[in-house]
Amino acid sequence: MQHGMNRELGQGLREYSDLLKKIGVQGYGSIFDELATGFENATSDEECHRLAARGLTYFGGKRGLTARFSLEEGTEHPEVAQIVYALTRLNHELLKRHL
Where do the H-state alpha helices sit in the chain? Predict the structure, then answer.
């Protein structure tokens, strides 16, 4: 297990959580805060796998974060939506690497 990578992932998830809160996405901020804390405190690879699998559930499907932000490109601020979508995809990929 690589503690440095886990701390970095935790920090990235916490920053993503802050972004979701700032743009008014309800309910996800605390979820990603919990995942961040989990990665920062993980003591085994199995724990990291479990956290990653849990985190990935919030990105998939028609109501997941990836679909939500890919659909918001036609919003009033398309450049902001594109940045949020890119960060969503990045966090999704980082979690997949922990499976």
Answer: 3-22, 28-41, 45-56, 65-71, 78-96
